[in-house]
Write a structure and sequence with these properties.
412 residues, alpha/beta, Nucleotidyltransferase, domain 5, 3 domains, five-stranded mixed beta sheet, 15 helices, 19% strand
C-alpha cells in the first residue's frame, strides 16, 4: 500500500487527498487537498468563486513521538449568505481554528479530567493554547437552547474564594446541567437569571429547589408565583440533628449512668453521641443497647432521638399523600415534648411548612446542585485555584454545562 493511502486511512479526513509528506526536526508535515472544487462557507452556503487563497497549517494529534502538522491551501469566499469574506470550511477543523478537530476534542476530553498545565505537557503545547481551545469549545458547543423547556430547577450557592466570595449556581433537575452562574449570593444574582429566561419560559417552571434562606425565596416568589418552592430535605434533617446534639449536651460529661462493656466513661459518652447521630437502621448491637439504656435512664434524650427518627421517616417511609398530616402530627409531638431544641425546631418547620411538603410531593431535593458544587471544588483543586473568576466560570460550563467532548478514537 502506498504511503499516501496509509496516511489517508490514518487521518480519516472526509473528502481529502494526501499530496505530500515531509519531515522537520520536530514534526511530520502532511500536505492535503480537498477533492471538491466547490467552496463551502462556514455558514453552510456553497460557491465556486474564490476570493483569494493562502497556505495554512493545523496541529493534529501526534503520531507516536512525532508531532503532526496538516498543511493545505485554504481559500476565502465572498459569501452572499452571510455577506462577508470568510475562509472556507475545512472538514478536519472548526472555522477559524489552527488545530484539527481531533486535537481539540482530545484536549477537551483531557481538560475535563486534569489541569490545563497537565494537558499542555501531555500534548506538547502551551497552557495558553489549551485555555484558548477550551474557550472555543465552550463558545461553539455550549447548548444555546439549554434554557428552553425548563420546568424543574435548583438554586444554591458555593464559596469560590476566601472572604465570603460566592457564586450563585442554577441547575436543571432533568438534564443535570448548569444553566446559569452569577457572582454573589444575592437576590439580584437570581433575578438576573429569571430576567434572562423571559416571561414565557418562566411561566413553564413548576418547581424550584433551594435552602431555607430568604435570599433566593423572595425573587422566586416574585418572578415565579406559579412554581412550587421545595426546601432541601438535608437541611431539615440537619436541624433535627442539631436539636438532638443540644439535648445530648445536657448529659453529664463523661456520663456514669450508661456503661458499655470495654469502654471508659469518656469513650462511652462519645459512643452515645455517635449512636444518637446514626440512623436507626444502621445501629449495631452496641448501638441498640445504648438506645435501650437511654430509654430507661434518660427518657428525655431518648424522646429527642425518637423525634429525630420520626422526622427522617417523613422522607423515608411516609407516602406523599400522607405527608401533610404526618408532619402536622410531628410538630404537635415536638411542641409537647418540652425539649427546648425540638420546640424551636417545630416553630422553624411550621414557618417553612409548605416548602417542606412541596419537596415531598415533587420528590425533589438539592442533591443534584450539591453534587455539582462538589464538581466545582474538584475543578478548583485540580488547578490549585483560579485567579480569574471568568476562567472558573468557563471551566464550570465546560465540565457541567453539557459541552460534549470525546476522544478521536470514538470513546466517550
Amino acid at each position: 500500500m502506498r504511503a499516501a493511502a496509509v496516511l489517508n486511512r490514518l487521518l480519516g479526513f472526509k473528502g481529502t487527498v494526501v499530496d505530500d509528506v515531509s519531515f522537520t526536526d520536530t514534526a511530520i508535515v502532511i500536505g492535503v487537498r480537498l477533492r471538491s472544487k466547490t467552496l463551502v462557507c462556514p455558514c453552510g452556503r456553497t460557491s465556486r468563486a474564490r476570493y483569494d487563497c493562502s497556505r495554512r497549517r493545523w496541529r493534529h494529534v501526534d503520531f507516536g513521538r512525532h508531532q503532526v502538522l496538516i498543511e493545505a491551501v485554504i481559500r476565502r469566499v465572498d459569501c452572499r449568505g452571510c455577506g462577508q469574506v470568510r475562509t472556507e470550511w475545512m472538514p478536519w477543523a472548526r472555522p477559524g481554528a489552527r488545530h484539527t478537530q481531533d486535537f481539540e476534542d482530545m484536549a477537551g476530553w483531557l481538560a475535563r479530567r486534569m489541569s490545563k498545565a497537565g494537558v499542555a505537557m501531555l500534548l506538547r503545547t502551551t497552557w495558553q493554547t489549551i485555555d484558548t481551545l477550551v474557550n472555543r469549545l465552550v463558545d461553539t458547543c455550549l447548548d444555546t437552547d439549554r434554557l428552553n423547556g425548563l420546568y424543574r430547577i435548583g438554586v444554591d450557592e458555593i464559596a469560590y474564594r476566601k472572604g465570603r466570595k460566592f457564586l450563585t449556581v442554577v441547575t436543571d433537575h432533568d438534564t443535570g446541567r448548569v444553566l446559569h452562574l452569577a457572582e454573589g449570593r444575592t437576590s439580584a444574582a437570581l433575578t438576573a437569571f429569571y430576567d434572562l429566561l423571559g416571561a414565557d419560559r418562566r411561566a413553564r417552571i413548576q418547581a424550584v429547589t433551594m435552602d431555607m434562606t430568604r435570599t433566593y425565596r423572595e425573587p422566586t416568589l416574585e418572578h415565579l408565583p406559579q412554581a412550587a418552592i421545595c426546601y432541601d430535605p438535608f437541611h431539615v434533617i440537619k436541624w433535627a440533628g442539631e436539636a438532638l446534639d443540644q439535648a445530648h449536651l445536657g448529659l453529664p460529661r463523661p456520663t456514669t449512668e450508661i456503661t458499655v462493656t470495654g469502654l471508659t466513661a469518656a469513650q462511652t459518652w462519645r459512643r452515645v453521641r455517635s449512636t444518637l447521630r446514626s440512623a436507626a437502621e444502621n445501629l449495631d448491637a452496641t448501638g441498640t443497647a445504648i438506645i435501650d439504656r437511654l430509654r430507661i435512664r434518660h427518657r428525655k434524650l431518648h424522646r429527642a432521638w425518637q423525634l429525630k427518627e420520626r422526622l427522617r421517616d417523613l422522607y423515608r417511609t411516609v407516602a406523599p399523600a400522607d405527608a401533610t398530616a404526618y408532619l402536622k402530627q410531628w410538630i404537635s409531638s415536638a411542641k409537647r415534648s418540652a425539649i427546648n431544641g425540638f420546640v424551636v425546631l417545630a416553630r422553624r418547620i411550621t414557618r417553612n411548612f409548605d416548602g417542606i411538603i412541596n419537596a415531598i410531593h415533587h420528590q425533589l431535593s438539592n442533591s443534584l446542585t450539591e453534587s455539582i458544587n462538589g464538581g466545582i471544588r474538584l475543578i478548583q483543586r485540580r488547578a490549585h485555584g483560579y485567579a480569574s473568576l471568568d476562567n472558573l466560570v468557563e471551566m464550570i460550563y465546560f465540565c457541567h454545562g453539557g459541552v460534549r467532548t470525546k476522544l478521536p478514537t470514538g470513546t466517550l
